[in-house]
Each structure stands twice: as C-alpha cells, then as structure tokens.
C-alpha cells in the first residue's frame, strides 16, 4: 500500500535531518594547522682552533622551526579525544630535524577529561614542562641547551603520559618503554637507545614526574627524570670531554629540576637549578646548572630579555658561565625580528659551546666564545 507524506510532515523531516547533521558535524574533529619558521645569520668566535665562523644555523634561532597538526573531538560526558603531530625542520636546507623523523617533535593520541589527560606516543618528558615557566629564554640558540643539549630535546618514543590540574596545581608523569625506537638519537651526544630487548625490560627506559603550581603572577615547579642505558647509548656532559659509554640497562642518567618565576606588569623574572647525575660501572659524575633570567616588554612591540647560566661539574673539573641578551621587535602579531648576543666563559679544562645552532662550533679547551645572531621569526 502506497501512502503520501503531507507537506508539513516533509518540512519537519527535513528540519530533523538538518539538526541531526549539525549534531554529527559538531562531534567531528576540530583540526588546527600551525607552525613556526625561524632563522637568521649567526657569528660564532673561536668556533675551532682555526677561528670564527659566520653561518645560517641549522637547528634553531629564538625558537626551533616546526609545523604541526593538532585536533580534538568531543566524545560527550566531558571527554574529548586529542591528537598532535609535529614535525621539526631546518630552514637553511629544508631537511627534517630529530634525525630525519617525519614527526620527530611530537606524535601522540589520547583522551582528555575532568580527571586529566592520558596520551600515547612520542611526547615531551616532564622535565620539559617543568622548565617552561622559569626558563625565560627557553629553547633559544644561546639558552640552556648550550650546556645540556637534552633540555630542548626532552622527548621520548613509546611513552605514556598523564597530566591533571586542579586550581593552579598540576601533576604530571611519563613512562617510556624505549625512548628512541627509531634509533636516530633524541638529542646530540646521547647516541641511540632503540628500546628494551628480551630479558632486559628496563633497557632504554625513561620515566619522569612533575609537580608545579601556577598562580596569576608567580609559579613554582619541580621534576625528576631517570633514563636507563642500552646498546649504542651515550652520556654526554657537553663540556668537551668524550661522552661516557651508557650501554648497560643498569646505567642511570637522572635530572632533577627546581624552578620559579614571578610576574609584575610587563616584567618577569625566573630562575632555578638543574642537577644531573650519571652513574655507570665506570663513571659517577654530577653536574649542577643554575640559571636566572628576566624579561621586560618595553612597549607592546618591543621585548627585551636575557639570562645568565652557570654550570659546575666538579668530577670533570669543568665550569662554564654564559650571559645572553636578546631584543625582539614584533612587526605584526605573527612576524618578528630579533637580535641577540651571548658570551660563554670556559674554565681551564672546559670546552662548552655558546651556540646550540647545530654543532660544529666547539672552541679550544679553556677558550671563551661569543655568539651574535640577527634573525626573523614567523608563526602561523
């Protein structure tokens, strides 16, 4: 038997279908494309025994260049699915960073809800998040990475992380089953550590925890991270001495941080301490890195900031002090130009390099080193 639908009923069905479509659309992923393009020209004195070098650095400027995709999907009940894919690249040659990985900076998927965020993949460790507030210059070419190249590269493969916040207090934890599954190295001088093998369940393992508190004008944070050794891994203190072998799953490389910052109007000051301890059957080495920085927005367009770093490695009899000063002028919301300069003082047995711009600038032992860079940065 055939039947006819009245005109009012047809319009009601069309309206219902439209509402249903809107409901489906609202549940779809919200995906954002973003990135940073940052480079310039750098001068480094005493780049080797042969003298100075002028170059376009391969790794970073004010911020490392990158592009990425991140997205969320509302799952209902206060839950949301999240993902992020982030690729690092070098402007001077257009090549991929992080050992040639397509998404070497971040690649994870997870779920976010009222009780925190749980995610899986290649992610930052808690050391990275703990330093975000107190380290004023961050991953700058003349920043903390000049003394410890792991800091701007503090990320691991095969990791599960959890973060939860409540009224300004944040707790975070991460666990990696094998911090370098691609076998390309997570940071300079660290070698490779592809993951656990049968009978060696902690080989190449990494775990970290963080606790921080952020108020409207100040914050404090602390973290602890432990790495285990594995085949082809190394422990480098970046002071000119050869990296230590780090091949056993019983070897440990730990970093502990404590930092704080304070804001007053256009002024910010931050500082802290990073202690490192490498323990193997052959070495037992400690270092202490102290930092203090400040930033001031002279005008909405002009930012002046700087930081002082001091590292002490008594076991190696090496010490270094670096001072960095930077000025940034924003041409628009997304585009800025900058000038920065730094000088690093090495002790008699140290050979720290002022530049974190891609290596190849280690000075002669005991030699001081200056770095100057003029650059441009665009975000999208």
TrEMBL record:
Domain named Porin: residues: 13-347
UniProt keyword Signal, yes or no: yes
Keywords: Cell outer membrane, Ion transport, Membrane, Porin, Signal, Transmembrane, Transmembrane beta strand, Transport
Signal sequence residues: 1-27
Oligomer and partners: Homotrimer.
Principal location listed in the UniProt entry: membrane
Protein name per Swiss-Prot or TrEMBL: Porin domain-containing protein
Subcellular location: Cell outer membrane
PANTHER family: MAJOR OUTER MEMBRANE PROTEIN P.IA (PTHR34501:SF9), PROTEIN YDDL-RELATED (PTHR34501)
Gene Ontology BP terms: monoatomic ion transport
Example of a GO cellular component annotation carried by this entry: pore complex
InterPro entries with a match to the protein in the record: Gram-neg_bact_OMP, Gram_neg_porin_domain, Porin_dom_sf, Porin_Neis
GO MF assignments: porin activity
Organism domain of life: Bacteria
Species assigned in the record: Pandoraea faecigallinarum
Protein topology in the membrane: Multi-pass membrane protein
One Pfam family hit: Porin_4
